[in-house]
Design brief:
It is a single chain. This protein is α+β, with helices and mostly antiparallel strands. About 40% of the residues lie in helices and about 20% in strands. The protein contains five helices and five strands. Strands 1, 2, 3, 4 and 5 form a five-stranded antiparallel β-sheet that branches. The protein is globular. It starts with 5 loop residues before the first helix and ends with a strand.
Length: about 160
């Protein structure tokens, strides 16, 4: 039996269905959006420095995690250098033999400069003038996500 308000029930049901469909579509769009290059650098360095602080060797202890952020060719190159007679004089990612404590808590990645499938991010570690270091990080797209391709020490920031 139709009541004067039965059309409102239909409208409410249709509105709820449309809202649910939009919510589902929006969640797929946001889940598929790639992480910006500067966020890749920031997340990687925070994880990497915490791993070092916990006494881990990230390249050896957590290959799956490091492969989320570092390109396959760079991982191969670092491992090749590590196995060579010369070895590595310093940690590839921090360009030092050891890290400073405040690096773990002071990771600042500037907005990426993107040129096609490559991106450049300037990263700063350290809060004090004695601990501050700047890096130029080049990233490339691998599997649709930004991954670190090279790291170069720019300067000891003052």
């Amino acid at each position: 039996m139709k009541t004067p308000f039965s059309h409102l029930r239909k409208i409410r049901c249709v509105s709820l269905s449309v809202a649910m469909a939009l919510l589902i579509c929006w969640s797929h769009v946001t889940a598929a959006a790639p992480q910006p290059a500067e966020q890749t650098v920031s997340v990687f360095y925070k994880w990497y420095l915490r791993s070092l602080a916990a006494g881990h060797e990230p390249l050896a202890d957590d290959r799956v995690e490091i492969s989320k952020y570092v390109s396959t060719p760079l991982i191969r190159e670092i491992r090749k250098r590590m196995r060579s007679d010369e070895g590595l004089d310093e940690d590839y990612f921090i360009k030092a033999q050891d890290y400073l404590e405040d690096w773990e808590w002071t990771v600042v990645a500037d907005k990426a400069v993107v040129d096609g499938g490559r991106a450049l991010v300037v990263l700063q570690l350290g809060a004090s003038s004695q601990s501050r270091r700047k890096f130029s990080i080049t990233l490339t797209r691998e599997g649709g996500v930004w991954k670190i391709q090279s790291v170069r020490l720019l300067e000891t920031a003052k």
